[in-house]
Amino acid sequence: MENGEYIFYADESGDHSLVSIDEAYPVFVLSVCGFKILEYTQKTVPSFQKFKFRYFGHDMAVLHEREIRKQIGDFTFLTNIEVRENFLRDLTKIVDAARFDIFSCIIDKRKFRADFFPDNPYRIALSICLMAVHRHLKNIGKHEQTYYFVFEKRGEKEDKELELEFRRIVAGENQIRVRLDSFKLRFADKKSNSTGMQLADLTARPLGLSYLHPQQSNRAMSIIQSKLCKVRIPVNTERGIYAPSGIKAKSPG
After folding, report:
1. Rounded CA gap, 223 and 216, in Å?
2. d(Cα 101, Cα 33) in Å, to the nearest integer?
C-alpha cells in the first residue's frame, strides 16, 4: 500500500482522569491536525521557521501553548506587553495562513463520569477523531493509502496504552466497525521540534476553552473555526462527548 499525500499530528489538552477533575478545566480535548504533505513541507514549515528566526534568532524554540500563555522558558520576553501583542498577532497570521484540517473531540468529564461504567475518555476521543479522518479521506477518495498519525511521547506506560488503544480501534473496535489498516502510529520525542506537533498543541486548549466559555473572547478560536473539518460521525452529547468539527450528534435514546 503506497503512502498517502497527507500526514496527521495529534495533541491533547487536559488529562483523561475521571477520578480527579479540575473544576477550572474539566475537559479532555484531542486535536488531530491533517496536512497535505506537499503544502506542509513547502509552505507551512518554512513559514514557521522564518517566524522563529524573527523572534528568537534561531529555530530551536518549541511553540508550546502553555509556555506562551504563562510566559516561561523561551517565552519570558513576552512579559513585555507590546512585544507580546506583536508576537501573538504574527503567530495568529501564520496559523491562519497554514492550510490544514482539524479533527477534534471534547470530553466533558463532569457528564462523562456519570455513566455507570464510563469508558476511557482518551479511547473515546481517539476513536472519534480517527473515524472523522477516515470519513474525510473516504469522501475525497483518498482512504486506500497509508497514513501516519504522530503523537508526542509521554512515557513508556502511557505510550504503550495509547498504542494498544490505537491498534484496537484500527482493527475494527470503533463506532462504525470498520478496519483502518492503512492508519499507522508514530511517536515523536518532545524535543523533535515538529511544526505539525506544535500546531496540534496550539489548537487543543482553545477548543476546550471555546466549549467551556463560548461567549468569551478567544483569538485563536476564530482562526481554528475555519479549519474544523465537518464530517458526520455519531457522538453522544448527553454523555458529555462533543465534536466541534461538525460531527452530527446522535439522537437521544
Report:
1. 15
2. 6
In a domain, 169, yes or no: yes
Spell out the residues 6+ positions from residue 201 whose beta carbon is closer than 8 angstroms to its own: 11, 63, 64, 65
The string of pLDDT tens digits covering residues 49-97 is 999 999 999 999 999 999 999 999 999 999 999 999 999 999 999 999 9
Residue 138's closest CA among 201, 188, 182? 182
Q: What are the Cα distances from residue 248, in Å, to 220, 227, 241? A: 24, 17, 11
> What domain range includes position 65?
6-242
| 189: in domain | yes
- How many domains, the chain? 1
Q: Does the pTM of the predicted model rise above 0.90?
A: yes
Alpha helices in 213-253 (DSSP H): 219-224
In a domain, 247, yes or no: no
Q: What share of the chain is helix, strand, coil (3-state, %, to 5)?
A: 45, 20, 35
